[in-house]
Design brief:
Length: about 350
């Protein structure tokens, strides 16, 4: 069923007045233009780790897209929906609530079996098998240094579940030189729906010149905007598709020498959502049956997806190269209740008609 997603848009209006007069005042004389020094534009070096080592993205012989943490923040990228609009060849599909999306890259996807897009949080794989409505791990965007999208196939570097490519979240490492603290919040309204709000905080604490700790936490309440309108004895309720996302990350970096470092990290996230954001529509024409942003909910739907990831990464500088060891333990728990009444009603009507004809 088609989904209706409310996307806030910003409209900028510019007005130019007295253009000719301004041009005459701003245009320098030919002699001044010849003597003025020319400014040279320089591009910042973008470092990626998509090939398991730190290198300039210009030297990577692969198709890589990189979004910095500032770009993620400025473009209000918070989940797969926003990321798919910013990265070419990346899309997603979902038949349930938040946290149950399936990623697709270069048109390669799988609804059941091995995933086709690998998900990494630093050096830890969060890739899970696709089992119909159960989707890909979806860590939310906060305190992210950059997002790397490596188009596939990448089986040599990342294994069997990277036929379409790899999506890698690179977080900020703890810093030894300075204390850092940031707080962020937002409040949003949806026309015809509930209000939404979010809050996040991060702190970097240098314990000594060899130990540093970085901790972050976030909470987001997304208001619903889909109504259940009570057709054929279904429930009557407004804004049934709300969701909440909460979580945090704590990392400790221990670096006793320039040749060795050990980083311990714990990441926890919980996505709790109600009904999906789909609407009831005609299977032939695709038009909505009862007006925009409505569906018939017979049983209240719910989804609860939680992640717990613990990791230890050790790096040794051997002179001729780095030896990296990443050991992790993770849990991915998914609980969901989906109302299939509308989808299966036609099937049961056929069975009832055959029984009645006997």
């Amino acid at each position: 069923m088609p989904k209706h997603v409310v996307v806030p848009s910003l409209v900028s209006l510019a007005c130019a007045m007295a253009l000719d007069a301004h041009a005459q005042q701003a245009a320098p004389a030919p002699a001044d233009a010849a003597s003025a020094p020319r400014s040279v534009a320089t591009l910042d070096t973008v470092v990626v780790t998509s090939q398991k080592r730190r290198e300039d993205v210009k030297k990577v012989p692969l198709s890589v897209s990189v979004l910095s943490g500032d770009e993620v923040h400025e473009n209000h990228i918070t989940d797969f929906t926003d990321l798919a609009r910013a990265v070419p060849n990346l899309s997603f599909s979902t038949q349930a609530g938040a946290g149950l999306a399936t990623l697709e890259m270069r048109g390669v996807s799988s609804q059941a079996g091995s995933a086709t897009v690998s998900i990494y949080l630093d050096d830890v794989s969060l890739t899970t098998r696709n089992i119909y409505s159960q989707g890909t791990a979806e860590p939310r965007f906060f305190d992210i240094d950059r997002v790397e999208v490596l188009r596939g196939p990448q089986g040599t570097l990342y294994g069997a579940s990277s036929l379409g490519g790899v999506l890698k979240y690179v977080t900020h490492e703890p810093q030894f030189d300075s204390f850092e603290g940031r707080v962020r919040g937002s409040f949003e309204t949806i026309d015809g729906g509930d209000t939404s709000y979010s809050g996040a905080a991060v702190a970097n604490i240098p314990v000594s010149d060899k130990v540093a700790i970085r901790a972050s936490g976030f909470y987001r309440q997304l208001g619903g905007f889909i109504d259940s309108i009570g057709t054929a004895d279904s429930d009557v309720e407004k804004n049934i598709n709300g969701s909440t996302v909460s979580g945090g990350r704590v990392s400790m970096l221990f670096k006793p020498s320039e040749a060795f470092s050990l980083q311990l990290t714990a990441f926890i996230q919980d996505i709790d959502s109600d009904a999906s954001s789909s609407v009831d529509s005609d299977p032939v024409t695709g038009k909505t049956l009862y007006g925009d942003l409505t569906q018939s909910q017979y049983v209240p739907e719910s989804t609860d997806v939680s992640y717990h990831v613990y990791n230890a990464t050790a790096i040794w500088d051997l002179g001729f190269g780095d030896l990296t060891s990443a050991t992790s333990y993770g849990e991915n728990e998914q609980k969901f209740l989906v109302d299939f009444t509308t989808l299966l009603s036609g099937f049961f009507r056929q069975i009832a008609a055959r029984i009645a004809a006997m």
